[in-house]
User: Which sequence fits this backbone?
């Protein structure tokens, strides 16, 4: 039994008086594909953002790849992580956002090569060669010189995936990556993710409302509600035979809203 | 008429001094604007405090007084400046204080998602600022920078008070020598206006060039 690549231990997080995460604990195995589902405000996006160090935690511990994320071990003591420690930990993790967050003033190629060149000192020629491979993988090799504003939402999101992959993270976080897309563009992004899952052994966590995709894609599904994991299991267990009343009512609403499960 | 061409020559010499002051003042103002504007969004309290003090002080006191200090008072502290140096110093520091707030506002106008993308791509604070935030903020700054530059151009006329022979100064000279009021004042009016137009046009051109590709229409 290999060690988990992510160990979340009793994380709490509040925005003002609103408790988003309430002593959340979870573990993720290397290579595992995890779907995080649940109503909005349930904390599923927050835990992704915490793993990407975009939010501070109020309490608890997180281990990523055997090391503390928000703490540093010094002489047997746990101290709050400094910027250098965080920068080192971030190398293990990549994230794709709901609204793509491409750099609008840079062409597709420069969006993908910027971080490898700056953070890893990769030479331009090597960075562009790798970027072309990645753009080819997401089906956008012909758009390398295009500006983000010239792309459709689906194309933008595929560029964003290539950009995150260019840093070769061990863990990829996908935060509602198809929620902002027109329905006919969703499939092209999901296809890229299927390909990614099939061709790499990356650990992938996705927050999604695409229940059909979550069912086919995930090894394990976590149902979030009010800052806690209410129920977890194999996709079939969660989607076909949910045990918890809250999971059942959530899925019922989702189906009523027209989503395929 | 030959007499007039001589006087026009004087006024054009003055125009050259004004252009010189405007260019050098703008360079100093630009440097101060970025130093103080980025200082205002620094993580460190002491840098924020320094930047705020500079901005509030130079916005809060008159450019006349600042110029007089640069030219008449600094020598008592052992620092003697030529009129041109004093003019550039006062103009640059004064307009730089206004432009610093433009820099700060533009940096803050770049969306949070851009900062988050920088974090997710593990860019350092300065790397993100340099390659992602500032290039986008610059486009926001440009129109107001144009305003600031024109303000600076017009403010250069205060240096005539410390006997620097700029455009306004020369117009006074010509007026007192010829007794004609209309001709010298009309020529400086036209020249100031023409210079301001050149600045506007330059900024607009720069803006167009920098906005290329951003909206997906102009490429």
Assistant:
């Amino acid at each position: 039994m290999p060690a988990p690549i992510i160990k979340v231990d009793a994380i709490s997080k509040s925005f003002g008086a609103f408790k988003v995460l309430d002593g959340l604990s979870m573990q993720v195995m290397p290579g595992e594909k995890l779907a995080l589902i649940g109503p909005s405000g349930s904390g599923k996006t927050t835990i992704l953002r915490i793993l990407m160090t975009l939010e501070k935690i109020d309490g608890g511990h997180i281990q990523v790849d055997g090391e503390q994320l928000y703490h540093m071990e010094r002489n047997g003591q746990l101290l709050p992580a400094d910027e250098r420690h965080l920068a080192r930990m971030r190398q293990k993790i990549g994230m794709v956002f709901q609204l793509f967050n491409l750099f609008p003033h840079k062409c597709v190629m420069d969006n993908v090569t910027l971080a490898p060149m700056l953070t890893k000192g990769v030479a331009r020629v090597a960075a562009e060669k790798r970027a072309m491979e990645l753009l080819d993988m997401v089906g956008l090799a012909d758009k390398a010189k295009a500006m983000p504003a010239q792309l459709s939402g689906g194309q933008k999101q595929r560029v964003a995936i290539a950009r995150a992959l260019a840093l070769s993270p061990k863990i990829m976080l996908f935060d509602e990556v198809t929620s902002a897309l027109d329905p006919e563009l969703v499939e092209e992004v999901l296809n890229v993710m299927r390909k990614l899952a099939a061709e790499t052994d990356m650990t992938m966590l996705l927050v999604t409302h695409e229940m059909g995709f979550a069912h086919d894609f995930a090894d394990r599904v976590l149902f979030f509600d009010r800052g806690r994991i209410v129920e977890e299991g194999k996709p079939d267990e969660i989607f076909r035979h949910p045990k918890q009343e809250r999971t059942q009512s959530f899925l019922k609403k989702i189906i009523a809203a027209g989503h395929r499960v | 008429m030959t007499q007039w061409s001589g006087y026009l020559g004087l006024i054009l010499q003055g125009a050259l001094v004004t252009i010189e002051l405007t260019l050098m003042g703008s360079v100093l103002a630009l440097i101060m604007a970025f130093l103080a504007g980025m200082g205002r969004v620094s993580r460190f309290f002491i840098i924020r405090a320094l930047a705020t003090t500079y901005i509030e002080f130079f916005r809060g006191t008159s450019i006349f007084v600042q110029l007089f200090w640069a030219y008449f008072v600094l020598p008592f502290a052992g620092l003697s400046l030529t009129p041109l140096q004093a003019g550039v110093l006062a103009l640059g520091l004064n307009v730089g204080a206004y432009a610093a707030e433009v820099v700060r506002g533009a940096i803050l106008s770049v969306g949070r998602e851009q900062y988050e993308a920088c974090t997710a791509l593990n860019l350092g604070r300065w790397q993100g600022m340099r390659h992602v935030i500032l290039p986008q903020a610059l486009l926001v700054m440009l129109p107001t920078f144009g305003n600031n530059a024109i303000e600076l151009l017009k403010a250069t006329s205060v240096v005539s008070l410390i006997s620097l022979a700029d455009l306004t100064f020369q117009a006074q000279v010509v007026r007192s020598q010829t007794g004609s009021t209309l001709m010298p004042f009309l020529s400086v009016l036209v020249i100031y206006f023409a210079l301001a137009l050149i600045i506007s046009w330059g900024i607009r051109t720069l803006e167009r060039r920098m906005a290329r590709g951003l909206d997906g229409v102009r490429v």
